[in-house]
Design goal:
Mean pLDDT: 85
Radius of gyration: 43 Å
Order of helices and strands: HHHHHHEEEHEEEHEHHHEEEEEEHHHHH
Low-confidence stretches: none
CATH topology of the largest domain: Nucleotidyltransferase, domain 5
Strand order of the largest sheet: 3-2-1-4-7
Helix content: 25-40%
Distance between the termini: 135 Å
Shape: elongated
Number of helices: 16
Length: 500
């Protein structure tokens, strides 16, 4: 195949000479080549057009085109090769792959979708979708990824499930972060949003319709199996997963707790919303301030019907559900929460100023066996029921004794458990001895007394005297042993002295 410059030189040589052989001699090619390019030019065809050579697969092209059209361009080349081989094709599979690729390319060119650019308006559209989150303790998580179409403001919230109450909680939290409600919310066709399709018309879930009415917006869904109709949310999911899910590419460490994942999501959204967007050349957080003027007012109360039944948190940081007590975080004491069962789990939701949020999750328990989590209580209340109480002074004398150090506290605990008499008098004697011998030495003696169980009168004085008189500790060398020798047995079994 000649290049364009060579073809021009061949045609120019022919125009000068008017002879195929003379032009071939000038251009340095065969005279048949000159004749072919001159003929193509005279017929008005492109000189770069390649002549189609007959191939054995040409008589099967109609069948290949039929299979590609029937499959919507998805048929595999190996399947086509089996079909045409059974019809008598004797060529190789490589020839079939090339033919199928050419037919698919031509078919897709005729079926290619043409898009009209979507120009979002401020305050009109919000989109959300779900992404697979990292595993925490072997448990799967999901990432709620919301995207405000005009300002490009993103919100990412980690959750454990994708049930309707969780969707409502994430939706309310997102709207409160945005500071208003858009007119439309676009999402996918999950059962929590769309029950079914009838003649390509989506039938909405009645409960999600009530949620939309509460907030004053309309729920819309994309075309089934057509992610291109909500590309903004798809891209948000892709970016969130790349930056939050640990992989070998981003070198992120595993999340040990759910709180660490929540903190990582907040840091991610703060970062992406504060940097300049590639499309708008503006920071999303600045564009959101302008878009808020077009958003609808947000209801003061969240939609709480989907969160379950209400419960009042008792002073022991527990709620009662079906006769079983379940613990909740201590800062929710004397407040109202919502509880619902999801499978074998009890999910407790609280509504704060930033929106509803899951505050506790328990496995279903049986009556008489409450489910208590230590993390829901302050550190001072997380001790076991059998743990010893820490001494706490109520009088000046008790404070002076406990101020000696941890040895004094250990002595008081052991003395109380042993039933020592005249404890207060002995505590006063220890405080008086501390003025003579120093608080450090007395506290050390009290610690030794607690370990040895010595609580008699004057035991502290004897221990102080021992501590004062003791020198460097005696350490046995490696060559010396306290094990007695066997020399005394050397005469065992022998007679000594005069024989009888």
């Amino acid at each position: 195949m000649k290049r364009g410059r060579e073809i021009v030189e061949i045609l120019e040589a022919y125009d000068l000479t008017g002879s195929y052989r003379a032009a071939a001699e000038l251009a340095g090619c065969d005279h048949h080549t000159v004749a072919r390019y001159v003929k193509l030019r005279n017929e008005g065809r492109s000189p770069e057009e390649r002549l189609h050579r007959a191939r054995p697969i040409d008589e099967f092209m109609d069948k290949i085109e039929e299979l590609v059209a029937r499959s919507g361009g998805r048929v595999r080349a190996d399947v086509v090769h089996q079909r045409i081989t059974a019809m008598g094709f004797a060529g190789g599979e490589r020839t079939t792959r090339r033919a199928v690729a050419a037919v698919k390319q031509a078919w897709q060119a005729g079926q290619r979708r043409v898009f009209r650019p979507w120009i979002p308006e401020p305050g009109l559209w919000m989109q959300f979708d779900w992404g697979e989150g990292p595993r925490i303790g072997g448990r799967r998580t999901s990432l709620w990824c919301a995207w405000l179409s005009w300002s490009r403001f993103r919100v990412v919230i980690p959750v454990f499930d994708k049930t309707l109450p969780t969707i409502v909680a994430c939706l309310d939290t997102t709207l409160r972060r945005l500071g208003g409600v858009p007119a439309y919310v676009l999402t996918d066709n999950e059962k929590t949003i769309t029950v079914e399709h009838v003649a390509d018309i989506a039938v909405r879930n009645p409960e999600i319709v009530q949620v939309a009415r509460h907030y004053g917006m309309t729920i819309r869904t994309c075309v089934p199996a057509d992610p291109q109709s909500k590309g903004g949310a798809e891209n948000t999911v892709k970016i969130a997963k790349a930056d939050l899910v640990p992989t070998s590419a981003n070198l992120l460490e595993q999340y040990r707790t759910f709180a660490e994942l929540e903190a990582a999501c907040r840091d991610f959204t703060d970062e992406v919303n504060a940097r300049i967007h590639r499309e708008t050349r503006r920071r999303p957080v600045e564009a959101l301030a302008e878009e808020r003027t077009r958003l609808h007012p947000l209801p003061q109360q969240a939609f709480t019907v989907a969160f379950g039944t209400t419960r009042r948190v008792n002073w022991d940081c527990t709620i009662s559900v079906d006769g079983v007590r379940y613990s909740v975080p201590h800062h929710l004491v004397d407040t109202r929460v919502w509880a619902r069962f999801h499978g074998d789990e009890l999910i407790v939701t609280a509504v704060a100023g930033t929106g509803p949020a899951e505050v506790a999750r328990h496995q279903r328990a049986q009556p008489g066996s409450p489910s208590i989590t230590d993390e829901h209580y302050p550190p001072r209340l997380r001790q076991a029921d059998t743990a010893e109480r820490t001494p706490r002074a109520h009088t000046a004398d008790e404070a002076a004794f406990l101020a000696l150090g941890p040895g004094a506290a250990a002595w008081l605990v052991e003395a109380g458990a042993t039933g020592v008499r005249r404890v207060r008098r002995k505590m006063a004697e220890a405080v008086a001895l501390a003025k003579l011998h120093g608080a450090t030495d007395v506290d050390r003696a009290l610690g030794v007394a607690a370990l040895a169980g010595r609580f008699a009168d004057n035991d502290i004085i004897r221990l102080l005297a021992h501590q004062r008189d003791e020198g460097e500790p005696i350490r046995a060398s490696e060559t010396h042993s306290l094990q007695p020798g066997t020399s005394a047995w050397s005469t065992f079994g022998t007679t000594t002295g005069d024989q009888p």
